[in-house]
Amino acid sequence: MDFIERIFGVAPDGGNGMLEFLLFAIPVAGSLLLITLRRNQTGRRDKR
């Protein structure tokens, strides 16, 4: 996962791939959080 180094020729994370991992993991975690919140909100509305 070193696409930033390949594309831009810079290693902002020292070449260990952590930045690329975070660029992938943060949106996935945010999406899962939003899905979970939406399901909880929908479940509460149906129980009324």
Unreliable sequence segments: none
Q: Radius of gyration, Cα only, in angstroms? A: 18 Å
Proportion of beta-strand residues = under 5%
Number of helices: 2
Overall pLDDT metric: 87
Distance between the termini: 47 Å
| Backbone structural class | mainly alpha
**Can you tell me the number of structural domains?**
1
Report the principal-axis shape: rod-shaped
What fraction, in percent, of the residue positions are helical?
over 70%
Provide a short characterization of the protein structure.
The chain has two helices and no strands.
Provide key terms for this protein.
2 helices, mainly alpha
Can you walk through the features of this model?
By secondary structure, this protein is mainly α. It has one domain (3-42). The chain is 75% helix and 0% strand. It has 2 helices and no strands. It has helices spanning 3-8, 18-47. The longest helix has 30 residues, at 18-47. The mean pLDDT is 87.
Topology:
Blueprint: H1 3-8, H2 18-47
